[in-house]
């Protein structure tokens, strides 16, 4: 991994609670609040200079801009929600460019696992634990904050364990 274990250790404790909140709100309300995306990006802005060399820190803002442009294009095409696009842009600076392949694999596996787990839970007594979640009744829409958030957290956790030194 290009991400160092030190970078991951700096970011993970702050990113994890935000991703938990994003997962909860997207599953329960089918919304990723702007304040959560702003908090995630703010974590990068504040912790980034402590975790990264200056040049890497500054370049990672380009990641956010590029992903935001792609996400807004996907949103206008009806492929994804606006909150999802903003989340991906806020998460992009945490990812080392050379780890893009790893992240795409993590994201693919997380998306398949999340859809399977959500659809299975919807048809079992587990649904009674959160009967008011809006995501239970959406067949064509899926709360992508669930797999997106967990992909970012898993990437950072793997960085803690296996990141470059």
Describe what this molecule looks like in 3D.
The protein has one domain (5-162). The chain is built from six helices and no strands. With 165 residues, it is an all-alpha fold. The mean pLDDT is 95.
**Low confidence ranges:** none
Number of helices: 6
* Biggest beta-sheet profile: none
Radius of gyration: 16 Å
User: What share of residues is helical?
Assistant: over 70%
- What value does the average pLDDT take? 95
Global shape:
globular
Work out the oligomeric state of the chains in this entry.
single chain
Quickly count the domains. Answer: 1
Proportion of strand residues? under 5%
Give the CA-CA distance, first to last residue: 10 Å
Q: SSE order, as H and E?
A: HHHHHH
Question: Helix- and strand-based class?
Answer: mainly alpha
- For the secondary structure, the number of strands is 0
What is the compact description of this entry?
By secondary structure, this protein is mainly α.
Write out key terms for the chains shown.
mainly alpha; globular; 165 residues; 6 helices
What secondary-structure arrangement, pairings included, does this model have?
Elements: H1 5-29, H2 34-51, H3 54-76, H4 82-91, H5 100-122, H6 145-162
């Amino acid at each position: 991994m290009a991400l160092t274990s030190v970078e991951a250790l700096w970011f993970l404790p702050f990113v994890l609670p935000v991703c938990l909140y994003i997962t909860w709100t997207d599953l329960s309300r089918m919304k990723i609040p702007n304040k959560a995306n702003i908090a995630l990006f703010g974590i990068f802005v504040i912790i980034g200079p402590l975790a990264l060399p200056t040049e890497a820190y500054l370049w990672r803002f380009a990641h956010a801009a590029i992903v935001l442009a792609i996400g807004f294009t996907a949103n206008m095409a009806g492929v994804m929600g606006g909150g999802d696009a903003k989340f991906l842009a806020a998460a992009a600076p945490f990812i080392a460019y050379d780890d893009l392949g790893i992240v795409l694999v993590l994201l693919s596996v997380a998306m398949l696992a999340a859809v399977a787990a959500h659809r299975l839970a919807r048809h079992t007594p587990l649904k009674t634990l959160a009967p008011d979640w809006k995501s239970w009744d959406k067949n064509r829409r899926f709360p992508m904050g669930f797999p997106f958030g967990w992909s970012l957290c898993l990437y950072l956790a793997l960085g803690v364990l296996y990141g470059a030194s």
